[in-house]
Amino acid sequence: MPILERLNQRAAQSWLGRYFKLEGSGAVGERPGTSLTMELRAGLATFVAMAYIISVNSTVVTESGGPCDCESLAPYANATQIQAGCVDVPEYLACLDVVKKDMITATVAISAIGTFLVGVLANLPLGLAPGMGLNAYFAYTVVGFHGTGNIPYRVALAAVFLEGIIFLILSILGIRQWLARIIPQSIKVATGAGIGLFLAFLGMQSSAGMGLIGADPATLVTLGGCPPEYMDENQMCQGHTMESARMWLGIGGFTLICLLLLYRVKGSILIGILLVSIISWPRSTAVTNFPYTEAGDRAWDYFKNVVDVHPIQMTAGALDFDLGSGEIWVALITFLYVDILDTTGTMFSMAKFGGYMDERGDFAGSTMAFCSDAFAVSIGALLGTPPITTFVESGAGITEGGRTGLTAISISLLFVLSLFFSPIFASIPGWATGPALVIVGSMMARSARDVNWDYLGDAVPAFLTMALMPLTYSIAYGLIGGICSYIVINGIIGIIAWVTRGRIRPDQENKETWQAFFTHDGKEILPGWMGRFSRKKDTSSHDHKGPPLPTRP
């Protein structure tokens, strides 16, 4: 018998195999086709597919400025510098270097913790990490570019912490899935598409992306891509557009990632990011990430360490529960809503893809999976990160045969291993991560095909949701615009129909059916614990969670 077969057989018959229900373990509900080596291989596949989040999340969150305060660090800074985000103030830039290193450590730590919890407690092959879209909303809308928003970084972290607590309570009570259903279907799918457009918009800018587009005083945005020496103090190109070597390198990386994805190469996004970064590391080129400046010298010295564990210095415990502003409550509700749609939809879609969805539309371990995710959100806030969520890249491991929590545990261990290479992740430039943002955005935008375009009462609110997110630079404003327009348009129609007793009513043949409750055998029921207090006594439906929600690309 080959060595690997003996290893798998012994693992299956051990306490480990019985706990995770490997094939041949004899445990109740064992999962066919699973083995120790297959689960480890699946974990490696998922990690490679989602490891890009380490560099991308640290770059995005650093754009918020973190706890760095320009006015206290550099009291000599003038009003123009402060309004521009202090991007040319040396003391502030040095603080940002520390924040980026903190965020690399925090991203790795919370990804490892969240993934380990869902593996051990829920026995599911899912990877968790700070969510794309949620981190952009946190950095660019709530806190604002280098702290120019309405809510300080510390207060925003407090909102994330509270969101995790509320999330945990909703998960325990079984209300989470119901809240995901009460939003009209077209608005839900448009939210993913709108966030995708927003991410693509960020990936094309110069701050966290390739620099393909830039600011313009007349048209707000225009074609960019000029070399740094042709930018003014407001980061606007003064001619020589599309001549930046860094921008063209980013476009090359974008093309490479697209081709690799088309050929189904595992870890395509990570490969593209690393290749562009490696080309950008030599100091004597036009695309270098280490120019001969004070900031460049400091980054180069850290990069040369290669192996280093950076302790979190500034972002851990940086919470401020000053919740008197109305803006913070809007942010908290938006975090909660987007996280409900994102994580719930992804978990259900992964369960369906992995084949462990039951006939009621639920899956074993769902409650513990939701609780693990919610708990990790609050722990992540204590470390300084935006909300974490389940990654759809978990499908890479499921494709490789991952079916149990051993896949998640192996992903977690690989995240821990990556913690020792902070200098590498800290040296990945924006024109390397920008293509990843555009690619992820394009994947998320494909959910627009599920919008009900055949009925204007559904189509117009969905379109406003998608359009307002990038145009207002705010995910929250897009959600508010879409939901309010849906209520106004369909509310007026309903009032007119009620007043005229149905004699005046538009053609609603193609309108979506809105349904707030779950159904089972033709009966409306409440989810989870709520169902136990409903007037329906059909005990077979108490824990029904409904059909899987739309996937998050």
Automatic annotation (TrEMBL):
Q: Subcellular location, in the record's words?
A: Endomembrane system
Would you kindly state one Gene Ontology biological process term found in this protein's UniProt entry? guanine transport
**Highest taxon above the source species:** Eukaryota
Q: Which GO terms describe its molecular function?
A: purine nucleobase transmembrane transporter activity
Q: Which UniProt keywords apply?
A: Membrane, Transmembrane, Transmembrane helix, Transport
Q: Matching InterPro entries, A to Z?
A: Azg-like, NCS2
Listed under GO cellular component are: endomembrane system; plasma membrane
Give membrane topology per the record: Multi-pass membrane protein
Please state which protein family the record places this protein in: Belongs to the nucleobase:cation symporter-2 (NCS2) (TC 2.A.40) family. Azg-like subfamily.
Q: Which organism is it from?
A: Piptocephalis cylindrospora
Annotated membrane-spanning segments are 108-131, 151-175, 187-204, 245-263, 270-292, 328-351, 405-432, 479-499
Protein's UniProt name: Permease family-domain-containing protein
